[in-house]
């Protein structure tokens, strides 16, 4: 039997024929969410337990066969699909999707890594608690994928990134050994805190099979405000008073450019947009009641001055949950609209918070000059300095570009150079995947790469875990 067939046969013997996919049955696991890359694989393995993950990794380690872990496959940077070699397996966590325990007293929740994020949020609500990680893909991304990418999302301002929410985890190492680190301790200074190596490692060091997470008191009433303003230079003039007044009661602070709203409206004409779209910018703020008076009244007080000074042009404050949902619907419609509109190069940059207006101004001048056929559409978790700076080519304009690959690289370089020049980063929350490996070489220092390569070779000496991702050769 040829070696590839033997590997598939060994995996099949451990998991059972119905829990592996080959040929046409594997198709659904090979293409990335955005349709930008399609890989090949010997088979997709669908283990249902930690022991089965361990068995599969032992086989792959023995045969030195690459393993591409896959969660919900919503990665924005080609992180979760196999490469084109075909000499690899995809390991999908989708069958390991159980909530294991919810402990309100310990304020913790334990789940298998393939658990869908929305199911974890729901499990917390059932015990009158709150799990704050929230992002547009929450209906399909998995907690193992969130932890592996150290996902950010819309609640970072108050609760931090996924890293801040993880208490413990279980991991299967590339050679099949199992590390049980499923604790829920808030304090444990006993040597290196190993879980942090796996958070944000994008499956390059092992497979996360279980996680324990913090949950929080359930949120009282939330109020959303959509603030319109014309000029980005005025951003801090009204966000600083907002921060001063509401402090940690601000859950989300999302920037949306007027150009973005107009693309959403064009691509999704049925979406209700009950405000003037012909404005330069919108800021969406979510504030939780803090017992210090009516949020809407206090918002009017704080923003009244900004309105008089001409820093903002309008404020829409949600009066009920339906209005709040309508405001957020706009924010969550961005990804789908981009897909319909054309080819978007999304830059997940972060710069120091005070530099955001300057970044936007410099980037606009450069993009307008170098890529006049492109639209600029921006959304961002601006409260924590993170912008999704999208340079989008409408479909027919993209089709007319002779060397699209060069164009992509040129656009990325312009934006990332500006961020780097401000002591910022080219990947704030989405990670590296296969898409940004070249940027690692350009923007990370030699010593950073050396340390990362040292960690990688310690855990994964045969380089079988997600090869070609994160680290340049
Ligand atoms: C509409 C939309 C909105 C989004 N919004 C945000 C946002 O606001 N903030 C944000 O940070 N991201 C966002 N993302 C990106 C994406 O949803 C996140 O990166 C998410 O955390 C990935 O989870 P996943 O289960 O889909 O992982 P996948 O895409 O399947 O995998 C991501 C990476 O993790 C690895 N991996 C997956 N599971 C495991 C595991 N159990 N063990 C080891 N490695 C594993 C994969 O190999 C891959 O490298 C968005 C994506 C979409 C499509």
From TrEMBL:
A GO molecular function held by the record: D-lactate dehydrogenase (cytochrome) activity
Organism: Rhizobium metallidurans
Family listed: Belongs to the FAD-binding oxidoreductase/transferase type 4 family.
PANTHER family from the UniProt entry: BLL6224 PROTEIN (PTHR43716:SF2), D-2-HYDROXYGLUTARATE DEHYDROGENASE, MITOCHONDRIAL (PTHR43716)
Keywords from the UniProt entry: FAD, Flavoprotein, Oxidoreductase
Cofactor(s) it depends on: FAD
GO BP term, pick one: respiratory electron transport chain
Lineage: superkingdom: Bacteria
Protein name, UniProt field: D-lactate dehydrogenase (Cytochrome)
Xref: SUPFAM superfamilies: FAD-binding/transporter-associated domain-like, FAD-linked oxidases, C-terminal domain
EC number, as in UniProt: 1.1.2.4
Enzyme class: oxidoreductase
Segments forming domain FAD-binding PCMH-type: 37-218
InterPro entries: FAD-bd_oxidored_4_C, FAD-bd_PCMH, FAD-bd_PCMH-like_sf, FAD-bd_PCMH_sub1, FAD-bd_PCMH_sub2, FAD-linked_Oxase-like_C, FAD-oxidored/transferase_4, Oxid_FAD_bind_N
């Amino acid at each position: 039997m040829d070696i590839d067939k033997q590997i598939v046969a060994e995996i099949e013997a451990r998991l059972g024929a119905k829990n592996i996919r080959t040929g046409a049955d594997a198709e659904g696991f090979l293409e990335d969410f955005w349709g930008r890359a399609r890989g090949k694989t010997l088979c997709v393995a669908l283990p249902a337990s930690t022991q089965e993950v361990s068995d599969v990794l032992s086989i792959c380690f023995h045969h030195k066969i690459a393993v591409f872990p896959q969660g919900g496959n919503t990665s924005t940077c080609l992180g979760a699909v196999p490469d084109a070699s075909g000499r690899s397996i995809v390991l999908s966590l989708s069958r390991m999707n159980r909530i294991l325990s919810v402990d309100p007293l310990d304020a913790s929740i334990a789940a298998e890594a393939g658990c869908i994020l929305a199911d974890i949020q729901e499990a917390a609500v059932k015990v009158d608690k709150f799990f704050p990680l929230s992002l547009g893909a929450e209906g399909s991304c998995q907690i193992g994928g969130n932890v592996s990418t150290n996902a950010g999302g819309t609640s970072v301002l108050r609760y931090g990134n996924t890293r801040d929410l993880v208490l413990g985890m279980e991991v299967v190492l590339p050679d099949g050994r199992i590390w049980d680190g499923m604790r829920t301790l808030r304090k444990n200074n006993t040597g290196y805190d190993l879980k942090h190596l796996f958070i944000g490692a994008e499956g390059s060091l092992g497979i996360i099979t279980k996680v324990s997470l913090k949950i929080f008191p359930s949120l009282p009433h939330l109020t959303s405000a959509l603030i319109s303003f014309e000029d980005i230079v005025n951003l801090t003039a009204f966000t600083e008073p907002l921060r001063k007044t509401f402090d940690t009661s601000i859950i989300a602070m999302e920037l949306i450019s007027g150009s973005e709203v107009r693309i959403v409206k064009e691509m999704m004409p049925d979406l209700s947009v009950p405000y003037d779209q012909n404005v330069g910018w919108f800021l969406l703020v979510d504030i939780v009641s803090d017992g210090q008076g009516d949020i809407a009244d206090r918002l009017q007080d704080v923003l009244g001055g900004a309105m008089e000074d001409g820093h903002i042009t309008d404020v829409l404050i949600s009066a009920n949950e339906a209005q709040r949902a309508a405001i957020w619907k706009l924010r969550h419609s961005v990804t789908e609209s981009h897909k319909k509109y054309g080819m978007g190069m999304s830059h997940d940059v972060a710069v120091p918070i005070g530099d955001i207006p300057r970044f936007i101004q410099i980037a606009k001048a450069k993009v307008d000059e170098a890529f006049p056929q492109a639209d600029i559409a921006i959304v961002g978790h601006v409260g924590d300095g993170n912008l999704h700076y999208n340079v989008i080519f409408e479909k027919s304009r993209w089709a007319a570009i002779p060397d699209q690959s060069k164009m992509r690289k040129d656009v990325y370089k312009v934006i990332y150079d500006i961020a780097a020049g401000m002591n910022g980063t080219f990947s704030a929350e989405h990670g590296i995947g296969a898409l940004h490996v070249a940027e690692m070489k350009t923007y990370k220092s030699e010593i950073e790469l050396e340390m990362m390569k040292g960690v990688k070779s310690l855990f994964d000496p045969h380089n079988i875990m997600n090869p070609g991702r994160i680290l340049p050769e």
